Amino acid sequence: MVATIAKPLTLEEFLQMPETKPASEYIDNQIIPKPMPKGRHSRLQGKLCQEINQISEPKKIAYAFPELRCTFADRSIVPDIAVFQWQNIPFLEDGEVPDQFNLPPDWIIEILSPEQNANKVIGKILLSLQHGSQLGWFLDPSDRSILTFLPNQQPILMTNSDRLITPEKINLELTVEYVFSWLKMGG
Questions:
Q1: Is 44 helix (H, G, I), strand (E, B) or coil?
Q2: Among candidates 94, 98, 123, which has minimal Cα distance to 108?
Q3: Phi first, then psi: what are they for 179, rounded to 5°?
Q4: In this predicted model, what pLDDT tens digit does every residue of 80-139 receive, in sequence order?
Q5: Alpha-carbon gap, residue 51 to 85, rounded angstroms
Q6: Measured distance CA(20)–CA(31) in Å, rounded
Q7: 126: burial class by Cβ within 10 Å (0-12, 13-18, 19+)?
Q8: How far is Cα 70 from Cα 63, in angstroms, rounded to an integer?
Q9: What was the pLDDT predicted at 106?
Q10: Handedness of CA 115, 63, 88, 61 (dihedral sign)
Q11: SS3 166
């Protein structure tokens, strides 16, 4: 009896596969399914996108995309939030947003879900920073902290009333406790 070993899937083969719900990512020749977002994750993701876009879209500064596939460096990741500066959005000739984003986001935001491995999620942020991202946030709803990543610097652990670092042109006045206050709805 001869055992056959399946050859690893290429990035191109992965990208030809139908999308899954929730999305799968392609990292180090492996398909890694993302967990289905739960309540706290969904709430933080929605509110962050809303806050960023409310400030930055009307002035054409940037746009926050939830669950956008970003393909670069022989990987295809789906950050919880991918923020692109306006001039870096690869608009089509007719001005529409394309389906394919073959570059890392300028700002990557990941929200830890209970069943996720923190180091794998942080690895996506580090990969993005190595390939051009300017900022990364890693939110941990369980301990109400946000680990902030900047290129070529040590991560900064932010808690309580710490004012969050945002890209220069996105003028958000957010503290860690304010972001996590969004988990309480309706007063």
A1: helix
A2: 123
A3: -60, -45
A4: 999 999 999 999 999 999 999 999 999 999 999 988 889 999 999 999 999 999 999 999
A5: 15
A6: 11
A7: middle
A8: 14
A9: 98
A10: negative
A11: coil
At residue 26, what is the residue type? Answer: Y
User: What does the chain come to in residues?
Assistant: 187
How much of the chain, in percent, has pLDDT values that exceed 70?
A: 96
Terminal alpha carbon distance of the chain:
66
Pairing of strands 30-33, 75-77: unpaired
**CA–CA separation, 173 vs 175, rounded Å?**
7
C-alpha count within 13 angstroms, C-beta hemisphere, residue 183 = 16
Query: What does the alpha-carbon distance between residue 37 and residue 42 come to, in Å, rounded to a whole number?
Result: 6
Beta strands in the chain (DSSP E): 24-27, 30-33, 62-66, 70-72, 75-77, 81-85, 107-111, 135-140, 145-149, 156-159
91 φ, ψ to 5°? -55, 150
What single-letter amino acid sits at 66? P
